[in-house]
Amino acid sequence: MKPSERRKARRLAVQAIYSWQLSQNNVADVEHEFLTEQKTDGVDIAYFRELLAGVASKTSQIDERLKPHLDRDFEDVSPVEKAIVRLATYELTFRTDVPYKVAINEGIELAKAFGADDSHKFVNGLLDKLVKQK
């Protein structure tokens, strides 16, 4: 597996997590929709599935790890930023094979791609605090 396949899996997963957060549809339906309607060439499908299912099943644990490090109410975090930090926190917490620098860097890159202008700064600062606490 190439690193680029995981990067593509993260990009697709963050979009699916965002969709799941807003629609509140069954995560299996969201997964099916993304795998049938999105371009998946070069995507590590197994990793995409794990990220989406993992974030969905462990959202409360992930959010509890994030909340003490926020400078605002969790409800005030944009849905895009929530999806990104949830994905990165899942990797930092439950995927010990992923180096923390990779998880943080990927989160920053996702924020640059999908977030508002300064989202990457917010994501970087939050994940940095999370890693230092660990």
Task: Write up what this structure looks like.
It is a single chain. This protein is mainly α and 134 residues long. The chain is built from 7 helices and no strands. The chain has helices at 3-23, 27-37, 45-57, 59-66, 79-94, 100-114, 119-133. The chain is globular. The model has no long low-confidence stretch (mean pLDDT 94). Residues 7-132 form the NusB/RsmB/TIM44 domain. Belongs to the NusB family. Keywords: RNA-binding, Transcription, Transcription antitermination, Transcription regulation. This is Transcription antitermination protein NusB. InterPro entries: NusB-like_sf (IPR035926), NusB_fam (IPR011605), NusB_RsmB_TIM44 (IPR006027).
Q: Strand share of the residues?
A: under 5%
Total E-strand runs: 0
Low-confidence stretches: none
Helix content: over 70%
Summary of the model, kept short:
It contains seven helices and no strands.
Question: How are the SSEs placed, and which strands pair?
Answer:
Blueprint: H1 3-23, H2 27-37, H3 45-57, H4 59-66, H5 79-94, H6 100-114, H7 119-133
Keywords: RNA-binding, Transcription, Transcription antitermination, Transcription regulation
Family: Belongs to the NusB family.
Protein name: Transcription antitermination protein NusB
